[in-house]
């Protein structure tokens, strides 16, 4: 028998209001035990909540949502209590004392919604991202999944694969009948349709990954010792992140600072100066700096020698008399004495970062969703003159796409996803 679960689904106490959710076959009975007389479904009403011995716990708004038309697909009750810690603890203790009730695990309410068909896996992933969103762009990208845009597109793809598979089955079952060829049921036509669908999927796969919006765009500041890297990260972060010193080799390890700018999340990284050294510790710092530069989404280069790759080449300390003239090869000049130059650098960073993240109206796929789409596309373009082999690849393509929606999803995948949720969601 399915347990009945409960948890606080609002913010941590103390707060003005605490919403305590109860979901499962025993939810209505538990609510009746506390409030005695329940309101009509989906109508909020003020009730006195009491313990089994009659002692008052709180006066709270009570809402009842009968299953399956509820958020979890099963009977669901909400108590909107006062948000003090003692009140929440008292109500939860009263619920925990009832047979068949237990405290919910992280993400268990949403997991039940998935199991009961109220949402699919793509919507659950979008909801997880929405709960974790800290910037406007993260919120917009997360809504693409949470509001069902990803699911709708995948279902269209599944329908198209099913249609192609039907043509192949027709080619197998009625290969000797002319009508099959005339209606486009031939193997060649089916393969052409599959390749067209794969091309459409790859257009989306060619877009920048959404993970940069979630994890932050990695901006690495690199250059030789004493080129102003630590000063620059402090200016970009608008706080003291790194120690600034005229002593060469002050920064010996990577220093990171998360920053939000232009609605985008960034992770700024200060690195050790790139130089030849016999110092063991400094050599480790140089090695780590090299690794960071290679892994950077954007590199800000402060050295006088041309950087490798597409970097923002900055002429630093431009206020000094000996560096007053900006070389033509530099993207811009900066100085700690010129606030406008730091603002100009930020504009340059944001402009380049926009090319590394999905567009506002793009269909945003997670890493797992992209991997499944890539597998599906590879199966769709598999060429074979044997319709049985092609039909098998169509089946595998359908399986990959269905995995995005959570159809036949493995427990490990679900455990990993729902571990990202808070207890009350």
Number of helices: 15
Element-level helix/strand string: EEHEEEHEHHHHHHHEHEEHEEEHHHH
| Whole-number tally of structural domains | 3
Residue ranges: pLDDT <50 for 5 or more in a row?
179-185
Given the helix and strand composition, which structural class is it? alpha/beta
Strand order of the largest sheet: 3-4-5-2-1-6
CATH superfamily of the largest domain: P-loop containing nucleotide triphosphate hydrolases
Q: Terminal Cα separation, in Å?
A: 22 Å
Radius of gyration: 29 Å
Look up the CATH topology of the largest domain.
Answer: Rossmann fold
DSSP strand count:
12
Give the overall form: flat
Average pLDDT taken over every residue: 87
Question: What would CATH call the architecture of the largest domain?
Answer: 3-Layer(aba) Sandwich
Fraction of residues in helix: 40-55%
User: Can you tell me the CATH class of the largest domain?
Assistant: Alpha Beta
């Amino acid at each position: 028998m399915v347990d009945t679960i409960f948890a606080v689904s609002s913010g941590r106490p103390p707060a003005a209001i605490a919403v305590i959710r109860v979901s499962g076959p025993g939810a209505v009975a538990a609510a009746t035990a506390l409030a005695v007389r329940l309101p009509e479904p989906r109508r909020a009403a003020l009730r006195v909540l009491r313990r089994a011995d009659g002692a008052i716990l709180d006066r709270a708004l009570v809402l009842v949502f009968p299953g399956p038309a509820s958020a979890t697909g099963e009977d669901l009750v909400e108590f909107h209590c006062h948000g003090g810690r003692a009140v929440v603890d008292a109500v939860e203790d009263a619920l925990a004392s009832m047979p068949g009730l237990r405290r919910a695990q992280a993400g268990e309410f949403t997991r039940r919604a998935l199991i009961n068909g109220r949402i699919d896996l793509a919507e659950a992933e979008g909801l997880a991202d929405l709960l974790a969103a800290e910037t406007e762009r993260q919120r917009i990208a997360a809504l693409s999944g949470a509001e069902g845009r990803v699911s709708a597109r995948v279902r269209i793809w599944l329908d198209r694969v099913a249609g192609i598979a039907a043509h192949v089955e027709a080619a197998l079952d009625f290969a000797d009948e002319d009508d099959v060829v005339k209606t486009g049921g031939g193997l060649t036509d089916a393969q052409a349709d599959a390749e067209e669908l794969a091309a459409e999927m790859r257009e989306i796969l060619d877009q920048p990954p959404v993970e940069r919006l979630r994890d932050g765009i990695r901006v690495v500041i690199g250059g030789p010792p004493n080129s102003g890297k630590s000063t620059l990260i402090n200016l970009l972060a608008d706080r003291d992140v790194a120690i600034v010193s005229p002593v060469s080799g002050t920064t010996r390890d990577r220093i990171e600072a998360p920053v939000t700018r232009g609605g985008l999340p960034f992770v700024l990284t200060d690195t050790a100066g790139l130089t030849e050294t016999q110092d063991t510790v400094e050599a480790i710092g140089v090695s780590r700096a090299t690794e960071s530069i290679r892994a950077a989404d954007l590199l800000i280069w402060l050295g006088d020698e041309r950087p490798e790759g597409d970097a923002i080449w900055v002429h630093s300390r431009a206020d000094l008399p000996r560096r007053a003239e900006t070389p033509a090869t530099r993207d811009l000049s900066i100085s700690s004495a010129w606030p406008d130059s730091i603002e100009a650098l930020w504009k340059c960073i944001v402009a380049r970062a926009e090319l590394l993240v999905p567009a506002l109206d793009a269909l945003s796929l997670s890493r797992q969703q992209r991997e499944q789409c890539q597998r599906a596309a590879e199966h769709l373009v598999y060429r074979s003159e044997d319709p049985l082999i092609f039909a098998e690849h169509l089946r595998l393509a359908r399986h990959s796409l269905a995995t995005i929606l959570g159809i036949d999803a493995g427990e490990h995948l679900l455990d990993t996803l729902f571990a990202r949720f808070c207890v009350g969601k």
